[in-house]
Amino acid sequence: MLTGSDLLTKVKDLGDVSKSDLVRACGYVSTKKDGGERLNFTAFYEALLEAKGVSLGITGVAGIGKGGRKLSYVATVQGNGNLLIGKAYTALLDLKPGDEFEIKLGRKQIRLVPAGGSDEDDD
Protein backbone atom coordinates (compact mmCIF):
# COMPACT_ATOMS: atom_id res chain seq x y z
CA MET A 1 0.00 0.00 0.00
CA LEU A 2 1.43 3.34 -1.05
CA THR A 3 1.54 6.21 1.44
CA GLY A 4 2.79 9.77 1.63
CA SER A 5 4.40 11.36 -1.42
CA ASP A 6 4.51 8.00 -3.24
CA LEU A 7 0.71 7.78 -2.99
CA LEU A 8 0.22 11.36 -4.19
CA THR A 9 2.57 10.79 -7.14
CA LYS A 10 0.79 7.56 -8.17
CA VAL A 11 -2.65 9.22 -7.99
CA LYS A 12 -1.39 12.11 -10.12
CA ASP A 13 0.27 9.76 -12.63
CA LEU A 14 -2.85 7.61 -13.04
CA GLY A 15 -4.96 10.63 -13.90
CA ASP A 16 -8.57 9.98 -14.86
CA VAL A 17 -9.13 6.32 -13.98
CA SER A 18 -12.00 4.76 -12.10
CA LYS A 19 -11.96 4.89 -8.32
CA SER A 20 -11.70 1.11 -8.15
CA ASP A 21 -8.69 1.06 -10.47
CA LEU A 22 -7.08 3.86 -8.48
CA VAL A 23 -7.50 2.05 -5.16
CA ARG A 24 -6.25 -1.21 -6.69
CA ALA A 25 -3.20 0.41 -8.35
CA CYS A 26 -2.17 2.02 -5.05
CA GLY A 27 -2.24 -1.36 -3.30
CA TYR A 28 -5.34 -0.95 -1.14
CA VAL A 29 -6.71 -4.38 -1.91
CA SER A 30 -7.01 -7.54 0.16
CA THR A 31 -8.21 -11.08 -0.50
CA LYS A 32 -11.50 -12.31 0.94
CA LYS A 33 -11.92 -15.82 2.39
CA ASP A 34 -13.58 -16.98 -0.82
CA GLY A 35 -10.58 -15.77 -2.84
CA GLY A 36 -12.32 -12.67 -4.11
CA GLU A 37 -10.88 -9.19 -4.06
CA ARG A 38 -11.81 -6.53 -1.50
CA LEU A 39 -10.96 -2.91 -2.26
CA ASN A 40 -10.14 -0.96 0.90
CA PHE A 41 -11.55 2.45 -0.04
CA THR A 42 -11.59 3.78 3.52
CA ALA A 43 -7.93 2.98 4.14
CA PHE A 44 -7.05 4.47 0.74
CA TYR A 45 -8.88 7.75 1.37
CA GLU A 46 -7.48 8.04 4.91
CA ALA A 47 -3.95 7.55 3.55
CA LEU A 48 -4.63 10.07 0.78
CA LEU A 49 -5.86 12.68 3.25
CA GLU A 50 -2.90 12.01 5.55
CA ALA A 51 -0.53 12.42 2.59
CA LYS A 52 -2.14 15.79 1.91
CA GLY A 53 -1.62 16.83 5.55
CA VAL A 54 -5.16 16.21 6.83
CA SER A 55 -5.40 14.12 9.97
CA LEU A 56 -8.59 12.27 10.89
CA GLY A 57 -9.05 12.27 14.66
CA ILE A 58 -5.91 10.37 15.51
CA THR A 59 -5.51 10.64 19.26
CA GLY A 60 -2.44 12.41 20.55
CA VAL A 61 -2.00 14.65 17.53
CA ALA A 62 -1.51 18.23 18.70
CA GLY A 63 -4.22 20.65 17.70
CA ILE A 64 -6.80 18.06 16.69
CA GLY A 65 -9.97 17.53 18.70
CA LYS A 66 -12.94 15.20 18.42
CA GLY A 67 -13.78 14.17 14.89
CA GLY A 68 -10.58 15.59 13.48
CA ARG A 69 -11.63 19.20 13.98
CA LYS A 70 -8.86 21.70 14.61
CA LEU A 71 -8.81 23.13 18.11
CA SER A 72 -9.57 26.85 18.32
CA TYR A 73 -7.51 27.48 21.47
CA VAL A 74 -10.28 29.81 22.60
CA ALA A 75 -12.47 29.29 25.67
CA THR A 76 -15.70 31.19 26.32
CA VAL A 77 -17.22 31.96 29.70
CA GLN A 78 -20.60 30.21 29.83
CA GLY A 79 -23.85 31.79 30.95
CA ASN A 80 -23.49 30.27 34.42
CA GLY A 81 -20.02 31.81 34.82
CA ASN A 82 -18.10 28.58 34.25
CA LEU A 83 -15.06 28.47 32.01
CA LEU A 84 -14.83 25.10 30.26
CA ILE A 85 -11.50 23.94 28.84
CA GLY A 86 -12.58 20.67 27.24
CA LYS A 87 -11.39 17.10 26.91
CA ALA A 88 -9.32 17.64 23.76
CA TYR A 89 -7.07 20.11 25.59
CA THR A 90 -6.68 18.01 28.73
CA ALA A 91 -5.88 14.99 26.55
CA LEU A 92 -3.12 16.95 24.79
CA LEU A 93 -1.54 17.54 28.20
CA ASP A 94 -2.21 13.95 29.33
CA LEU A 95 -4.19 15.19 32.33
CA LYS A 96 -6.08 12.64 34.40
CA PRO A 97 -9.15 12.92 36.66
CA GLY A 98 -8.01 14.18 40.05
CA ASP A 99 -5.03 16.21 38.76
CA GLU A 100 -4.93 19.44 40.76
CA PHE A 101 -3.96 22.95 39.73
CA GLU A 102 -3.31 26.21 41.53
CA ILE A 103 -5.26 29.08 40.02
CA LYS A 104 -3.12 32.19 39.51
CA LEU A 105 -5.06 35.34 38.69
CA GLY A 106 -3.53 38.30 36.90
CA ARG A 107 -4.87 41.31 35.07
CA LYS A 108 -7.58 39.77 32.87
CA GLN A 109 -5.80 36.40 32.77
CA ILE A 110 -5.96 33.06 34.51
CA ARG A 111 -2.98 30.72 34.76
CA LEU A 112 -3.34 27.11 35.86
CA VAL A 113 -0.21 25.70 37.46
CA PRO A 114 0.01 22.03 38.46
CA ALA A 115 -0.27 21.83 42.26
CA GLY A 116 3.24 21.53 43.68
CA GLY A 117 4.78 22.60 40.35
CA SER A 118 6.23 25.91 39.22
CA ASP A 119 4.77 28.26 36.66
CA GLU A 120 8.19 28.57 34.98
CA ASP A 121 7.69 25.31 33.03
CA ASP A 122 7.92 25.31 29.23
CA ASP A 123 4.75 25.80 27.19
UniProtKB/TrEMBL annotation:
Keywords: DNA-binding. GO terms for cellular component: protein-DNA complex. PROSITE patterns: SPOVT_ABRB. Residues 72-117 form the SpoVT-AbrB domain. Coiled coil: none annotated. InterPro entries: AbrB-like, SpoVT-AbrB_dom. It comes from the Bacteria. GO terms for molecular function: DNA-binding transcription repressor activity; transcription cis-regulatory region binding. Pfam families: AbrB-like. The keyword Cytoplasm does not apply. PANTHER family: SLL0359 PROTEIN. This is SpoVT-AbrB domain-containing protein.
